[in-house]
Every structure is written in structure tokens, then in C-alpha cells.
Amino acid sequence: MMIYDTLLKARAAEGKPVRVGMFGAGFMAKGITNQIVNSVPGMELAVICNRNIERARQAFEIAGVTDIAVVETDAALAEAIAQGRAAITSDPLLLCRSPALECLVDATGAIEYGSMVTMAAIENRKHMVSMNAELDGTVGPLLKKKADAAGIIFTGADGDQPGVQMNLFRFVKSIGLTPLVCGNIKGLQDPYRNPTTQEGFAKQWGQDPYMVTSFADGTKISFEQAIVANATGMTVNQRGMIGRDHRGHVDELTQLYDVDMLKEKGGIVDYVVGSKPGPGIYVLATHDDPKQQHYLNLYKLGTGPLYSFYTPYHLCHFEIPISVARVVLCNDAVLQPIDGPRVEVVATAKKDLKAGEEIDALGGYMTYGQCETYEISRRETLLPMGLAQGCRLKRDIAKDAVLTYDDVEIPPGRLIDTLRAEQDRLFPVA
């Protein structure tokens, strides 16, 4: 599983680094910049694109890069890359069109902007490593189909919990077990948190209060577990997942699930609050061979029927270069939908909402996201969380009610709505 480091060393020795372009210059993007610039021989972050170009400059400067070129044309970007100068721009199409770049990274978390740059990347046949679970959880199956048709890879990333779960899922399958739960370990879950309650934590770590709130109110974990479900073929056994509060060791979770239910559903995604060691992820799996069950017991995994595997950390930006290397050098995607969507995230009222109000951003004051099966969501015309921002309410909505398309007016002219409509046509529900 470590072949990519050998391949990167070879690229470094040849003087042919894997050249990367990145969208975004926020908290996570700054970490990625520092990681590639200072810790990944054989890889070069050639250009950062951000709507606020000075934030892109700052990301490079924090990493110790001082020779920075502002580029506004294809020729200027090509010249900067040829000279070995770091480039910054506000024009995303420059990255998508550049023949020198082998892979792009979406580190924005912005759904509309992310949909635009991802479509441009696909149209220009550029691999895309996406940290944008919100986009993936809304139209990922469609984007994967389009990327396949273009002969490139659109994939989630190592480091974030979905990629860590997928790596462990693949490992567990590779040694002959059948995964039945892919789970995420959280320290906090409160759907009514908002940017005001999370402001102090956000300031402490230099993060955006809305992004921090999306972690606390369950929106982020819902998107993360939705894309894991779509990548594994698993589902949820109820709206919002089970989400136990469990303060013991993660191994104890093997006793808390109904194995027959798990098998009947083909496996589920879930989360727990407070399990140790955390924050990490877990995969629970079965093995039908009594001989192998004997060995698993000998190796201290217990008597079954569920066996516990876990990773006690997720290292986010540290692992993004690994994702890029896997895609470019190994043609190996980290996390992709198998086919059509299995699970998605639906918008739920965080408080009593009034007719005429415009829904604010994810991790805001008005809505939180919950996992639901794609089949139920389509049948009940539930409003995907990824489409909620900017919608205007037609009627009053009670706290904790799930919004439907009939409850809102969708703003005109958004690419994400066009893509979502295309995905719904491509994957109809009987």
C-alpha cells in the first residue's frame, strides 16, 4: 500500500515532479500547501486559485515560498511553471487548461464553485482529488460518470474520514472478511449548534465558524457517511443514522449491532459519539469460515460474529499528496461512488423557519443535514442539503422538519441544480 512513495522518489530523481494545481486557500488549503512544499519530494504545488488572490499568496508565504507570480493568462501560467515559480490566480480555467498540471485538488468545500471547477476539470480531462464531500454527496455519482467518460479520475481524498474508512474497508475485504459497518467517531453531535456557539472554537484554531458548525451540527458527518455509503454500496438503517453515545472502546461496538439486520441491508454507515480511541473511524466485519474465525480469536479480535478494525486518527491535509500520487502514478482512486446514489443528505430545520426567509449557508443558523436513503429522499421529494443554501421558503417550517422541494423556491441559474436534475434523470427511482 506504500508504492506511491517509491514512485514519488523516482519522479524526484528524474527531476519530473508531479505538478498540482489547487482550488481554495482556506485553513485546509494552507495545510496542503505547506505539506507539498516542504514534505513531499517528487511533487510540486504549481498554482493556487482563489477568488481572493491575496489569500492564495498568503498560503504560499506561510509555507515559506516568496517567489510568487500572479498569472492571468494561459501563457503566464506556463511561463511561471517553466521557471519554477509558484503561481497564484483567480481564474480557475487556467488550471483546468494547463497541460503542465497532472492533477487538481478541490479544497474549497463550496458546492456551486466546486461544481463549476470540477466540471471544467472533467471537460479538460484533468484528474480531480476532491475534499468537497458536500459536492460529492450531492452530485458525486453523476460527476463520476462524467469523469469516467472523459478518461480521468474524480475521487475523494485520503486523510478525511471517508477516505480513511474506504482504505480500511478495502483492507478488511482484502483479507477475506465482509464489512458490515463503516463508522465515524465523533467527539460532539448537537444539531442546534450555530456559528455563534462555535465562534470561540473557530477563533482558537483559525477556522471558519460556519465550517466548524457543520462539524458540530452533524451536516459534515452526514455528507461524509453518504459518500462512504455510495462508495461501498452500504445504506443507512434509519434517517440520521443510529448515532449512539458510546464512551467505551470502539471494540465494544461489535456487541451493539444486530448482525442479521446488517446482513439484510448489505451493511450500513453510522457514527458514534465519544468512543475511544478517537477521533478516528471503524469498520466492523464478519467471517463465515470457522477455521479463519479460530485464527481471528487467536489474534485477539474475539469470537465474532463481528470483528473490529479501526484507525484512531485522520490526518486530513497531511494525506492529500498521497491521494494525488495514487491517482497520477497508480491510477488508483481513493473513494468513488460505485454507481447510482445509495444515500444522500437532506435539509432539516434547525429552528422554526418563516415563509420568505432565505436559507443561509451550511453550518449556519437555519438548517442541518441528515442522511437518508436516496430512494426515500426521491420518493418524498426531500430537499438535498447541497441545494438548500439560497433557497427562499414558501411556507413556515417547524423545527426539525425535513424540507421538501415544494417548501422552497430555488434560485435561478445555478449549475448545481442543473447537475442535480441530470443526476436524478440518470438514476430514477421506481
TrEMBL record:
A UniProt-annotated Pfam family: SAF
PANTHER family: SAF DOMAIN PROTEIN, STRU PROTEIN
Xref: SMART domains: SAF
Protein name from the UniProt record: NAD(P)-dependent oxidoreductase
Domain of life: Bacteria
Source organism per UniProt: Teichococcus aestuarii
InterPro entries named in the record: DRL_cat, NAD(P)-bd_dom_sf, SAF
Domain SAF: 344-409
